[in-house]
Amino acid sequence: MVREAVVFAGLTDPGETRLQLQSMADRAANAMEEIIFGLYEMDTEGRGKTTAEIVKRLKDDDSPS
Predict the structure, then answer these.
(1) Which pLDDT score, from 0 to 100, does residue 49 have?
(2) CA-CA distances (angstroms) from residue 20 to 7, 15, 36, 40?
(3) pLDDT at res. 64
(4) Do 23 and 31 meet the contact criterion of CB atoms below 8 Å apart?
(5) Which pLDDT does position 63 carry in this prediction?
(6) What's the number of CA atoms in the CB half-sphere (13 Å) around residue 51?
(7) What are the extents of the domains in the chain?
(8) What DSSP letter does each residue of 1-65 carry, written as one string?
(9) What is the dihedral of CA 65, 62, 53, 44, to 10 degrees?
(10) Residues 6+ apart with CB under 8 A from 57
(11) How far apart are CA 3 and CA 52, in angstroms?
(12) In the chain, which residues have pLDDT < 70?
């Protein structure tokens, strides 16, 4: 009811913001999933990696061949 009143008054539909936030949250969740998957690929045995090891590996992978 409030949403309809806001739209009737000529203001931006608050429902549009909800959809936009949902889309942003989906992208963030997908990015986090990729990060976790990448970390797993670096340490498939589950022994753990230090931040320094992870950063070094990322820098090495980005180096031109």
Answers:
(1) 94
(2) 17, 9, 25, 31
(3) 62
(4) no
(5) 60
(6) 0
(7) 2-62
(8) -HHHHHHHTTPPPHHHHHHHHHHHHHHHHHHHHHHHHHHHHHTTT-----HHHHHHHHHHHHS--
(9) -90
(10) 42, 49
(11) 50
(12) 62-65
